[in-house]
Amino acid sequence: MDTLADDEYWMRHALILAQRAWDEGEVPVGAVLVQGGKVIGEGWNRPIGQHDPTAHAEMMALRQGGRVLQNYRLLDTTLYITLEPCIMCAGAMVHSRISRLVYGAADAKTGAAGSLVDILRHPGMNHQVAITSGVLAEACSTLLSDFFRMRRQQQKAARAAGNA
Fold first, then answer.
1. Which residues form the CMP/dCMP-type deaminase domain (predicted)?
2. pLDDT average, residue stretch 100-107
3. CA distances (Å), 114 to each of 71, 88, 93, in order?
4. Does the pLDDT of residue 143 top 60, yes or no?
């Protein structure tokens, strides 16, 4: 288990969920929580639609996993995310005791798995999470870049229509 082929398989699943976020007008990030080769939680970004700043893809997947396992401790699980997690989500991963994080695109501005800070492997934390980064990074990054390019074009068009 946890081979590159497995990681790519589950990251493709997360990319499908990220596309679902895009389709709902949300930043396209998807997450899949796996235990023993089975999905126990999945999510995609929904803070806008749910009016909830904590409705990040990984938070949704962790919440679902907790309900499935009937436990807040998500032992022996791997979380696959298309984008490096933020500080909030990284903190939830530590508290939930996931074993491993696999992410696609790095986030230099807010990434809490090594880019900006490393919450998941901080020596002061009572639990540390193994990290694999860069799985299908190009596909994950392209999805985000395309989304934000589309958003900028929409904003430009709206400004132009307002000036007409």
1. 5-116
2. 98
3. 28, 14, 14
4. yes
140 a known binding residue?
no
Question: CB-hemisphere CA count at 13 Å for 85?
Answer: 33
Q: How far apart are CA 27 and CA 110, in angstroms?
A: 14
Instruction: Examine the residue annotation and report whether 42 is marked as an active-site residue of this protein.
Output: no
Distance between CA 135 and CA 59 in Å, rounded? 20
C-alpha distance from residue 65 to each of 91, 93, 143, 145 (Å) = 16, 12, 26, 29
Indicate the pLDDT class of residue 162, thresholds 50, 70 and 90: confident
State the total domains in the chain: 1
- Is the pTM of the predicted complex or chain greater than 0.70? yes
Please tell me the distance from the alpha carbon of residue 70 to that of residue 66, in angstroms, as a whole number. Answer: 6
Secondary structure letter of residue 134 according to DSSP: -
Q: What pLDDT, on the 0 to 100 scale, is given for residue 75?
A: 97
Set 26, 42, 58, 84: catalytic member: 58
CATH code of the domain covering residue 60: 3.40.140.10
Q: Domain range spanning residue 69?
A: 3-163
- Residues near 52 by beta carbon (within 8 Å), at least 6 away in sequence: 46
5-58: pLDDT as tens digits: 999 999 999 999 999 999 999 999 999 999 999 999 999 999 999 999 999 999
Six-digit token string for 61: 């997947």
